[in-house]
TrEMBL record:
Organism annotation: Arthrobacter nitrophenolicus
Residue ranges occupied by any Amylopullulanase X25 domain in the UniProt entry: 213-301
Protein name (database record): Glycosidase
Lineage: Bacteria, Bacillati, Actinomycetota, Actinomycetes, Micrococcales
Highest taxon above the source species: Bacteria
GO BP annotation list: carbohydrate metabolic process
Gene3D superfamilies, per database record: Immunoglobulins (2.60.40.10)
Alphabetic keyword roster: Glycosidase, Hydrolase
A single MF term (Gene Ontology): hydrolase activity, acting on glycosyl bonds
Amino acid sequence: MAKSTAENTFLRLKTVLDVLTEGVWSGDALNAGQVLAEATARVPFNEHEAELLSGGIPRGHKTLTTATAKLVKAGWLVKGRSGWTITEDGMRATVAYPDAVSFATALDAGAPVPADTPVPTAPEGFVRKVTAAPVEPVAKEAPAKKTTARKTPAKKAAAAVGKAAKALEEAVEPVVKAVKGKTAAKQPVAAGSVASEGFEGPDVETHPQPEAVAVAGDFNTILGAPENWAPQYDEAQMEFDFLDQLWKKSAELPAGFYTFKIALNRSWDENYGAFGTFDGPNHELHHPGGTVTIRYNHATRDITIN
């Protein structure tokens, strides 16, 4: 029986820690893109997760990237300027919670790793295995007649994972340079080493995020959705910006008065209205016409409109 997106995501989060632990054993410095690519290669996307979102990124990859904030919150992962680093507790968590069920339960409950859990050590003769296919340069050849080959959803998703990983690194790079210019140089962390208490926090402060956020209101049909007030449709979904941790939706709307709410995970089970109130009154938009951008901050439940 096929696993759900939630089950697969927890499996991939566990795999993220496994991959980083193997990096410590082998002494390899692994960047975020390599870790995510390996996690998705070991736990492949199902058909739903392989669907490409508007940015060309597989749904499952975006879900995993957002969910890694859980590992940071648990103290098992540090997202720093030198890349992703697993903590000692993160390594011990791979031993204490070896299966997906116990891992998911502990992560959701915020349970500490049992004190008597040992830090795993590399098996004798350990060699780090890479499941994700490396990106190889394409040799130049004489022009040939173009042929069109159909790609399966899985192949499209695999190609898009590399694109997403590269985009993530390119997005974070300016922040890294800016921070380096403002702070004094500190003792670097050795490649592949376990994070210590003195390690600096992440350049981009992350917060746990929902799988999806929709602007559900009386203008969804203008955006192309089959009906209004329907958070389940793609046309109502916002895009998550990793750098500023905001969900955003831009659209062209005619002049008029509109109302809407923020709905999470394509349903009304969790929604926020005016003043960030759960199941509260509608947000109101008096729009003169043209492009409007709505931003939602899940950490504060606030919105901004311009």
